[in-house]
Amino acid sequence: MKVTYRERLLPKWWVFVFVGSLIAMLSVAYGAAISVPVGWVMFIALAALVGVGMFTSSPVIEVSEVLRVDDARLPVDVVSSVVVLDSVQTRTARSGRTGATNFVLVKTWAAADAVLVTLDDPSDPHPAWLVSTRHPQALMDAITEGAQATGSATG
């Protein structure tokens, strides 16, 4: 099972800066109230814990014979179409009542664009998947290639 696309949706740089600033403010307050070494230890420990937490909780998108979005899996042979959406189209697709039963993984702090994967599987409770990505064209190409390799038609 060869992986043709892999992406970890890490938060954008400014999210790390913002969280680091909050940790720094808290550490300065504790350092001033208790002692400077306590503030530094708190800053280092919290920054490490939060950094590891933000990395490990970031969803992973992989495409092979299966589209894997975090823990969800979808065989690419049930894909009928893949469409790239910009930030405005993503917001509309996410908030529209027509997509109330869609599988949605939209992380606006990581990526504004997304792909809409429509399924050709009437037994699936989710008629489409809406997935954030920093590289929508590459993800669409990987899903399309995987579907064509397994014999499904996409467009």
Structural write-up:
- The model has no long low-confidence stretch (mean pLDDT 88).
- The two termini are 23 Å apart.
- The strands form 2 sheets. The protein has a 4-stranded antiparallel sheet, with helices on one face. Strands 5-7-8-6 form a 4-stranded mixed sheet.
- It folds into 2 domains: 6-56, no CATH class; 60-150, no CATH class.
- It is of the alpha+beta class.
- α1 (13-33) runs antiparallel to α2.
- The protein contains 4 helices and 8 strands.
- 43% of the residues lie in helices and 24% in strands.
Low-confidence stretches: none
Q: What is the spatial order of strands in the main beta sheet?
A: 1-2-3-4
Largest sheet: 4 strands, antiparallel
Q: Radius of gyration over alpha carbons?
A: 20 Å
Helices and strands, in order, run as EHHEEEEHEEEH
Helical stretch tally: 4
**Fraction of helical residues:** 40-55%
Q: Work out the number of β strands.
A: 8
Distance between the termini: 23 Å
Beta-strand percentage range? 15-25%
Blueprint (SSEs and pairs):
Elements lengths: L4 E4 L4 H21 L2 H21 L3 E4 L2 E4 L2 E4 L3 E7 L1 H9 L7 E3 L8 E6 L8 E5 L3 H15 L5
Parallel strand pairs: 6-8
Antiparallel strand pairs: 1-2, 2-3, 3-4, 5-7, 7-8
Helix pairs in contact: 1-2
Which terms would index this structure?
8 strands, four-stranded mixed beta sheet, 4 helices, 155 residues, single chain, alpha+beta
Short summary:
With about 160 residues, the chain is α+β, with helices and mostly antiparallel strands. It is built from four helices and eight strands, in the order βααββββαβββα.
